[in-house]
Design brief:
The protein is mainly alpha-helical. It is built from 2 helices and 2 strands.
Length: 108
């Protein structure tokens, strides 16, 4: 097999590994969004004084401030996911092109 083809195969494997890492990161962020959404839901229904965990301690917080913080966190997480999805799409495109190039070389 030609050196160029071997290089493309190696590049394809790297791309596939990066895509896999992106999927793991997306899954982690989606889990954090779910946790944040559940916290917001609980915050809306609770009659008790809410607390915010900072490091190893819990601090009493204003309900509106805590809700604002959670909504901001959720927005940031969604932006991160969108960014990862853009990266994933670009890498998938690149991987498909590499696969086609490799198949053409191998068929020759």
């Amino acid at each position: 097999m030609e050196k160029e083809t071997q290089d493309k195969i190696a590049e394809l494997q790297i791309s596939e590994n990066v895509i896999q890492n992106i999927l793991i990161q997306k899954q982690t962020l989606q889990s954090q969004i779910l946790e944040t959404s559940n916290a917001l839901k609980e915050l809306k229904t609770t009659k008790e004084k809410p607390y915010k965990i900072i490091g190893n301690i819990m601090i009493a917080s204003d309900k509106k401030d805590l809700e604002k913080d959670l909504n901001e966190k959720k927005e940031i997480l969604n932006l991160k996911i969108k960014n990862l999805e853009k990266q994933e799409d670009k890498l998938k495109e690149k991987s498909q092109k590499l696969q086609q190039e490799i198949l053409k070389k191998i068929k020759k």
